[in-house]
Automatic annotation (TrEMBL), chain A:
<dbReference type="InterPro" id="IPR035906">
    <property type="entry name" value="MetI-like_sf"/>
</dbReference>
<dbReference type="Pfam" id="PF00528">
    <property type="entry name" value="BPD_transp_1"/>
</dbReference>
<dbReference type="GO" id="GO:0005886">
    <property type="term" value="C:plasma membrane"/>
</dbReference>
<feature type="transmembrane region" description="Helical">
    <location>
        <begin position="91"/>
        <end position="111"/>
    </location>
</feature>
<feature type="domain" description="ABC transmembrane type-1">
    <location>
        <begin position="85"/>
        <end position="291"/>
    </location>
</feature>
<feature type="transmembrane region" description="Helical">
    <location>
        <begin position="17"/>
        <end position="44"/>
    </location>
</feature>
<feature type="transmembrane region" description="Helical">
    <location>
        <begin position="164"/>
        <end position="190"/>
    </location>
</feature>
<dbReference type="InterPro" id="IPR000515">
    <property type="entry name" value="MetI-like"/>
</dbReference>
<feature type="transmembrane region" description="Helical">
    <location>
        <begin position="123"/>
        <end position="144"/>
    </location>
</feature>
<keyword id="KW-0813">Transport</keyword>
<keyword id="KW-1133">Transmembrane helix</keyword>
<feature type="transmembrane region" description="Helical">
    <location>
        <begin position="218"/>
        <end position="243"/>
    </location>
</feature>
<dbReference type="GO" id="GO:0055085">
    <property type="term" value="P:transmembrane transport"/>
</dbReference>
<keyword id="KW-0812">Transmembrane</keyword>
<feature type="transmembrane region" description="Helical">
    <location>
        <begin position="272"/>
        <end position="292"/>
    </location>
</feature>
<protein>
    <submittedName>
        <fullName>ABC transporter permease</fullName>
    </submittedName>
</protein>
<comment type="similarity">
    <text>Belongs to the binding-protein-dependent transport system permease family. CysTW subfamily.</text>
</comment>
Length: 303, 357
């Protein structure tokens, strides 16, 4: 015999699990599942025409970092991969810094406009974000290619004789990524700044702080959550960027995203692609942990 | 008199359609070591003057000097002036002690000096026990003290206070009024205090400037302003006042003879001599209630309100004006007149103020 309260307790417990099902399903099928498949694929043997053979192998992981010389079989670092990793990290870091350099003043500008105008300014920041990524990237390409707007104008003005090669360089990738990810920096900083009490700026000036020191000692510490969020939002997708480096970098300036795509496509080496994906994930995690630690420690108590 | 602050024809117009003239050519001299109050209703331009002195705004025209040197080309962080903000504007990411030390730190003072000055300031405003608290963890009154200590710590030559007591409750406000006055005397710093509360102004100030519509109506000691208001606005704004119409019938030197609405005549001191019709101001506590035929202005007692320390009598004068007078209570006095009874109001000519129109 079951007592009534016991049944109710059981029913509530069961209902609780039922309510959790959507969340659990998403976690299982959208987050853990694919990750698990990738992990499994990374320790299998590549199939001849793509796909995988169900045979355990650590070759893919070996190939992520190392390579065997074709001629004398000596073991060495995989220079090609390492340089691509390095380029990815470097360009992503530079993208984040550039977005910060342009995004912070932009957010400050918007936050200090009269309330009625702010939404309009924010709309101007967001509109490009609604446009297709590929179209935006090609727009930048159109600007900086050898026969593009910038070079044409410069030549017409007589400032240069030969077009400047901007496209298919690291610079062009950087430019493209900064343009594409800038709204992701502006939005969170603006959100922090909108809540910032600008009377504190006057208090800072009043207490002998110059403009720079007001920025450093009063504004930055208080909008730091926005700066951290913006930096993460820009850095993480930059690291895995695929479209922008593909279009702006041509074929010779690969980033990790392109390298992974190559393995799943022409390379027909799915295990290597899977291993590279997990490496990318690891780099993101390490970078984030390091960043949060540094950014969190910056504000040390005085005296 | 050493002038701490001296303004000439100070004018501030905010751009817009139409442009707003917040301050229309104001002259002020504030002495060193003075507790000076700018008093007026909101929108009278008092806060604008404060912001001009602090350097947050730039005047449209006019001059502004501190101890004989022009302030106009100095940014706020180069003026030896500190402000206690109405909202306190404490830095929320710093502790109480860090807030108080901020100004000194920005001035590049050595650490040891900052530490000792901060300790001294916290002692001065009785906040030593809360040095390490975050500013969000202390009460409004405590925040007010921190804001005060923060502004005093760099030892400014002039301290600006922008309605700093308006957010406090009545009891706390009374205490802080006395404390502010004490701090001003102890530190010897010139205080410029902005308020719309006339009582606050009267109790604390050495001198008061009464303002309205971007202009100064009168500058003087609290007593001067209360007893001898320069015009109707000042008389009305400071304390309660009865206004009576009167006609000048003769002028003899510093005194004028006036005929009141009831036909009776009095002589009053006249600083602003003029002819024809004038307005007389009589404070409620300066008038007496008398029997119908013995006073100056007859009327009907319409109401008597008991306030503890005093009783307010509302009288409808026969010429139609309303008159309020106050009489101090003590246990041995009793009300002689009943509501609806015919009475009269009486006052010596000396207490009546002839106002310029």
């Amino acid at each position: 015999m079951e007592s009534i309260p016991d049944t109710i307790a059981r029913r509530t417990a069961r209902n609780r699990w039922l309510l959790l099902i959507p969340a659990l399903a998403i976690l299982l099928f959208a987050a853990s599942g694919p990750l698990l498949i990738t992990l499994v694929y990374s320790v299998l043997t590549p199939g001849d025409y793509g796909g995988v053979e169900w045979q355990f192998s650590l070759d893919a992981w070996f190939n992520v970092f190392m390579q065997r010389d074709i001629f004398d079989d000596t073991l060495g670092w995989s220079d090609a991969h390492l340089s691509i990793f390095w380029r990815s990290v470097k360009l992503s870091a530079l993208t984040t810094l550039a977005c910060l350099a342009f995004g912070f003043p932009t957010a400050y500008f918007i936050a200090t406009r009269p309330k009625k105008q702010r939404d309009l300014w924010m709309l101007l920041i967001i509109i490009p974000f609604w446009t297709n990524l590929l179209i935006r990237t090609f727009a930048i390409l159109e600007l900086i290619r050898n026969e593009g707007t910038v070079n044409t104008v410069l030549i017409a003005l007589g400032l240069i004789d030969e077009p400047i090669q901007m496209l298919f360089t690291e610079f062009s990738i950087l430019l493209g990524m900064v343009y594409v990810y800038l709204p992701l920096m502006v939005l969170p900083i603006y959100a922090s700044m909108e809540r910032f009490d600008f009377r504190l700026v006057e208090a800072g000036y009043d207490l002998y702080a110059t403009r720079f020191r007001v920025l450093r000692k009063v504004i930055l510490p208080l909008v730091k959550p926005g700066v951290i969020a913006g930096s993460i939002l820009v850095f993480v997708p930059s690291l895995g960027a695929y479209v922008t480096p593909r279009v702006m970098g041509g074929g010779n300036q690969l980033m990790i995203g392109n390298l992974i795509e190559l393995q799943f496509g022409q390379g027909r080496n799915w295990p290597l692609g899977a291993a590279l994906s997990i490496t990318l994930l690891a780099i993101v995690m390490v970078a984030l942990l390091a960043y949060v630690r540094v950014a969190g420690n910056e504000e040390t108590p005085h005296g | 008199m050493t002038k701490a602050i001296s303004a000439r024809a100070l004018r501030k117009v905010y751009p817009g359609t139409p442009p707003v003239e917040a301050l229309g050519g104001v002259d002020i001299d504030i002495a060193d070591n003075e507790f000076f109050t700018l008093l007026g209703p909101s929108g009278c331009g008092k806060t604008t003057i404060l912001r001009l002195i602090a350097g947050f705004e730039h005047p449209t025209s006019g001059s502004l000097d501190m101890f004989g040197q022009s302030l106009l080309d100095l940014p706020p962080y180069k003026r030896q002036i500190n402000t206690v903000f109405q909202s306190y504007a404490l830095f929320p990411h710093m502790s109480v002690a860090e807030n108080i030390g901020f100004g000194l730190e920005m001035l590049g003072k050595p650490k040891s000096e900052i530490k000792s000055t901060v300790a001294e300031m916290m002692d001065l405003v009785q906040m030593s026990h809360l040095a390490d608290r975050q500013t969000s963890q202390i009460s409004g009154g405590q925040q007010q003290r921190v804001a005060l200590a923060r502004a005093l710590a760099p030892k400014p030559r002039v301290l600006l206070l922008d309605e700093p007591l308006s957010a406090l409750d009545f009891k706390l406000r009374k205490n802080m009024q006395l404390e502010l006055k004490r701090l001003q005397t102890e530190t010897g710093i010139t205080f410029i205090f902005v308020t719309h509360d006339q009582e606050e102004a009267l109790t604390m100030s050495d001198r008061i400037a009464v303002m309205s519509d971007g202009a100064i109506r009168q500058i003087g000691s609290p007593r001067d302003i209360y007893d001898h208001p320069a015009d109707r606005f000042v008389a009305d704004f400071i304390g309660d006042t009865n206004f009576l119409p009167a006609d000048v019938i003769a002028t003899e030197g510093e005194r004028v003879s006036l005929r009141l609405g009831s036909g009776k005549t009095i002589t009053a001191p006249a600083r602003h001599a003029g002819g024809g019709r004038v307005t007389l101001a009589v404070r409620p506590e300066h008038a007496r209630l008398e029997a119908e035929d013995s006073g100056l202005l007859p009327g009907v007692l319409s109401d008597a309100v008991y306030f503890g320390t005093d009783t307010h009598f509302h009288i409808a004068l026969d010429d139609g004006t309303a008159f309020v007078l106050r009489q101090q209570n003590s246990p041995d006095t009793e009300t002689r007149f009943a509501k609806g009874e015919r009475v009269s109001v009486s006052f010596p000519g000396e207490v009546a103020q002839v106002l310029r129109d």
